[in-house]
Every structure is written in C-alpha cells, then in structure tokens.
Specification:
This protein folds into 4 domains: about 20-115, no CATH class; about 130-270, Jelly Rolls (Sandwich), CATH 2.60.120.310; about 275-410, Jelly Rolls (Sandwich), CATH 2.60.120; about 430-475, no CATH class. It is about 20% helix and about 30% strand. The chain is built from 9 helices and 21 strands. Helix 7 runs antiparallel to helix 9. The chain is globular. It binds heme C (HEC). Heme C binds near residues 62, 67, 73, 90 and 344.
Amino acid sequence: MFRLTFFFAIAFGVSVLSAAPPTYNKDIAPILYSQCALCHRPGEVAPFSLLTYLDAAKRAPLIATVTKARIMPPWKAEPGFGAFQHERRLTAEQISLIDDWTKAGAPEGNPKDKPAVPTFADGWQGGEPSLVVKAGNGFSVPAEGPDRFQCFVLPLNLEQDSYIQTAEFRPGNRSVVHHGVIYVDETGAARRRAANSPDGSYPCFGGPGVAATGLLAGWAPGTIATAGDPQLAVPVKKGTDLVLQIHYHPSGKAETDISSVGITFSSAPPAHGRTALIMVNTNIDIAPGDAAYVSKSSLTLPRDVELSAIFPHAHWLCKDMKVDAHLPNGDIAHLIRIKDWDFNWQGSYKYEKPLALPKGTRIDMEYTFDNSDKNIRNPSKPPARVQFGEQTTDEMAVAFFTVILPTPADVAPFQRDMRLALIDSMLASGDMTALQRLPGMNGRGGQILRMFDKNGDGKLDDAERGALMDFIRSMMR
Ligand code: HEC
C-alpha cells in the first residue's frame, strides 16, 4: 500500500513537473528576440512583427510548424557541410520549447521574466562610409505581379586607382527589396547598357548581364555588414563602376525604392590579394519533365588559396547543391550543401575561418534541378526545355568564392590560371563554346577545336583536351 502511494506520488510529481509549460516571457521571447526579430520587426522584410506577446501568441501554431520544419529562421546551409559565421539555426531544444508552448495554449507567464525588446542600429552597420552612391531616383515596384530584377549602374567617379575596403548595401524600402548583389565593372559595359535609361538602370535577372570583373558583396535580409579589413581591400581602377542588382518582391502596395551602397576606401594597398573565383557549368540542357537533372563540374586549383566565403547561385529549378573540395592528400572538405535551394534566400556564406586549399585541390560542384510540373517554383507552365542563361526561365550552376592570396601581386597570375582552369572545366563538361571566351580568339575557336579533335568525333577526350590546354598555355606565355 505504502509503495503504491509512493509510486503515485512520484508519477504525480513527475507529471506536475512536465506539465509546467514554457511561457512566452521566460522561454519564448528570448528565442524570438535573438533569432527572429532581425527580420520580424516593423519596417523589415518579414510580413509581420514578432516583438510582442500578442504578435507571437496569435501565430503560435504557425511558428511551431515553420520552426519544426526549419523553414524559419531561413538558413539554407546544411549543418556538417562547412562552418559559417552568423549561422541562423535553432537548437532542437529551442524548437521543442516552442512546440510545448504552443501545445499548452501559448501562455504569457510572469511579466518579471520578460527580457528587454531588442534594439537595432539604424545607420550603416560597418561604420560611416567614405562615399554613398544611390541606386536610381525612385524605382517603382507595382503592388502585384512578378518579381522585378533591376541592375543599377553606380559610377564611382574615381580620380585615381583606389582600394575598396568594404561596400555595404543598404536597402531603401525594406518591404520590397529582397536581395542585392554588388558587382565591379571595369569595362564600362554596364554603363553603356544603361545609357538610354532615365535612372542609370536596366532589367537583369541571373547576373549583371555584362561580363563583370568581380563580385564585391551580396546582401539578403539578415546579412550582417562589417567594417572590412584594409589588408583585404579590393583594388579598383580609375573609371570603375559598381553594378548593383536588386531583386524586388511586390508587397501588395505600390512602392518606390532608392537603395544605396556605402563604400569605404582604404588609403594604402592591401597586404593580401582578394579576388573572386568563379565556378560555372554552362552546359545545362534540361528536358521538360526531368525531375532530377544533375549538373556536375570540377575545377582543379592551379595555386594554393584560402577561401573566405562561398556564394552559390542557380535559378528557380535548382533543388540541391553540393560543393566539395578533394585535397591532394585525399581529405574531403565540404564547402557547402543546400538541400532545398530557394532563389529567394541566396547570399554569401562566410566561413568561420578561411579554408586553406593547396594547389592541386579539385573542387566538385553538383547541382540537381527539378524541371517537372511538380516543382511549384517552375516558372514555365507547362515545363519547357531549359538551358544555361540569364533569364528567369533559363538556369545556371554557379559558385562564387572569395579567395585570399598571399599578396596583391598574386591576383593577376591567379586570374590568368583560373581562366584557363575554367575553360578546361567547361570543355570537360562538354561546352565547346568555351574557347570563344578567351581574349583574342576572334571566332577562331571552332577551327582550333577541329585541329585538336584528332578522331573527329566533335568532342574532346581527356588526351585531346590536355593537348589543347598545353597549346593554349604556350600561346599565352
Ligand atoms: C532573415 C530574415 C528572417 C528571419 C531571421 C526570420 N524570418 Fe520568418 N519570415 C521572413 C520572411 C521574409 C517571411 C515571408 C515569407 C518568405 O519570404 O519566405 C517570413 C515568414 C515567416 C512566417 C510565415 C510563414 C507562412 O507560411 O506564412 C512565420 C510564422 C515566421 N516567418 C516565423 C519566424 C520565426 C519564428 C523566426 C525565428 C525563429 C523567423 N521567422 C526568422 C524572414 C525571416
């Protein structure tokens, strides 16, 4: 009898304990303030604020659903495939706290437990810039309709060659600006393209629409700008323009936007070289209905590098991205893995520590695309044949890396080596137009290809490609 009572007491005691539900003030507000308020506050990108008890309580079941499914907070990189700065990921414990709170009817709890509402700096996050350039003069975004992609040319009017330490994107109208990417154009091509527009801009989708010299920075909601490092400043020539691509998402109300970029120059040349390494597979040809088209390409590093960030990019059909580095000693370093790619949530992922990759490392990129009608993001209804290109209905398989080299003098030879490595990788993937991208080719690419296609099958096998690359290298010397 005694034992039975004891047993009930314990059982009862335990159930009382587990029945004390988490409360908003004590358990939930700290999670929402630290992980959600960045975007879910007035004037920010998310459609509603999550700063008060009522904001959260009336959406408790939805919050529980999207956090359990890890849709929110948005963070596409899979854990275990590269360690990044500012990772936005709830712990399993935080997710179950939210779930238990919701199941208990979202109680508010004791006001004394409530943390202070967070405050956010309004100005430039990376410090006061030396130059602020505005994008256009009030770009109109209609209330409804498809997303808009616009490239704004930002003339820097540099009187001499300079060093950009940091370029911070600042959205003008946060309710419509979905993301922004800043490119460097030393050629004037973007400026010529925008010449006849009233606001120095032109529509563009997958990229700047011109052969940009480099990619400076990417912004998506939640991006945290920093002051940058003068030792990693990017040298830019006199006459260089920036090209700012903005992705606009209609808000339900007609809106206008003037976004800006704040640039901080460094007065002295940097100690190290910073440049972009671009991997791209141009040989994409996806049949309508193909739900798992795989695009693979590889590139072998011609020099030792340090990677400080990765910016993977594709359009609407891509589902899965895998980028791995195979080191000469047999080790594999995962550079990123995204299992549910969403064009809306692209951005640059900065590694926690720069990754040192020795010469001879092979980087493998494997992207999978779903061109079936089951893919709700498919822009073509019914699905159509899709090839590489910059339009919404084209596809891309790209990875931009920010690369750090020992000295600035290493950048030019690195870029020359990489151009060759990229052409080799494009030829290997079956893109026979790759040669045309070499300067001075003047349409002779086809002729040269035929010279090296010894067996005349219209393709280059490994030996034929090797001989062609040796020939190109000797010509470039
Ligand atoms: C980086 C910005 C950002 C962060 C951080 C963020 N959200 Fe969101 N959230 C959005 C945006 C933008 C939307 C609108 C839908 C979309 O564009 O994906 C959204 C939508 C939602 C929705 C509505 C989903 C639906 O299906 O209608 C909920 C609920 C939500 N967020 C909860 C949260 C919670 C909870 C957190 C923190 C754990 C969080 N969000 C963190 C940007 C963010």
